[in-house]
Amino acid sequence: MPTAIKIWEVTANGSLSAIPNTRINLEEQLETWLEQDISIISSDYMVIGRQVSTDFGGVIDLLCLDSSGDIVVVELKRGKTPREVTAQALDYASWVTDLSHQRITEIANDYLRERKPLETAFQVTFGDELPETLNEGHSILIVAESMDSSTERIVKYLSAQGIRINVLTVQHYSGEDGKELVAQTFMIEPSEATEKVRTGSKRRQSLTREQIRVICDGKGMAELYDDLLDRLDSVFPSKATTASSLAFRGKIGDGGARVILSLLPLDSDANHGLKFQVYTKRLAEYIGISTERVESLLPASHETWTYWAAVNDPDIDYWIGFQGFFKTVEEVSKFADGLAG
Predict the structure, then answer these.
(1) How confident is the model over 130-187, as pLDDT tens digits?
(2) How many Cβ atoms are within 10 Å of 220's Cβ, its own excluded?
(3) Helix, strand, or coil (residue 335)
(4) How far is CA 127 from the centre of its chain?
(5) Which of 9, 31, 198, 265 is the most exposed place for a label (fewest CB within 10 A)?
(6) Is the Cβ–Cβ distance between 295 and 322 less than 8 Å?
(7) Residue 227 is part of which domain span?
(8) How far apart are the first and last CA of the chain?
(9) Of 151, 170, 198, which one is at a domain's C-terminal end?
(10) Quick one: 228 and 178 in the same domain?
């Protein structure tokens, strides 16, 4: 059971002074706080709906999307009995499991409204494109000011059975100087909860850098891959892996980090070379060169390419680029040296 969090203040004379826990019907404020800053729970979440009505007559407090494109149901306890809060959360999950890509997009766009469409909001939040497939998995997070042993037993049992469910306890404190503090703790460590269900997940997990290197080695392209990676390391300090690629990212303008170039080892072979996809305008702005210059640095085996989900995006220029193959060390040198210098 989540234990009570105790907080002490270090006083001017070096002694410790306990800050008392205060009950202020915190759950009445939590929904607004979490909507305003969901990173209180996780920096891997973005809110796509508040008070979302299900087809079963219930209302989900907060509906979120994580960086993998999976749904997260956030349910506040708000005085419900242990059986009620757990049963209700599972009922919401049974509705969420069948949500289509289109329905999720509709819910998100209705919530986001004029701020930005889901594709753009996702990219701004996570620095990556919206996955082609959404909701291959989902999780449940119950948030409360305190939790009882009955709910603890139920949640731990469900988690052990491979259901992604957890409890977040949030507590409020008031210091003598009037300063208010909020602290939180999870019943199950999030990384541990994720690992428990990883093997049963339908979603393809992101490749590791080591796995990508092994794939390239098996296809006779390890030397080419190593050379390109080494040459681009100073150009793109930010890199991340996906289920099929190594993505090179960079900050453009006042926005967040965006994917600029991707290497796709699974679509590569010794005959064609190491496959790449590049967003032309993003790379041009990131490096400070013309789009014509970008194309001139690419291998001869390139062709136009557009990210499929952005065909109707008003920001379409940033989703258009080229794809092709690096086949020789000379092509790698021409591209990397052109960007670096």
Answers:
(1) 887 788 889 999 888 777 788 888 888 888 888 888 888 777 777 777 777 777 777 7
(2) 12
(3) helix
(4) 9
(5) 198
(6) yes
(7) 209-340
(8) 58
(9) 198
(10) no
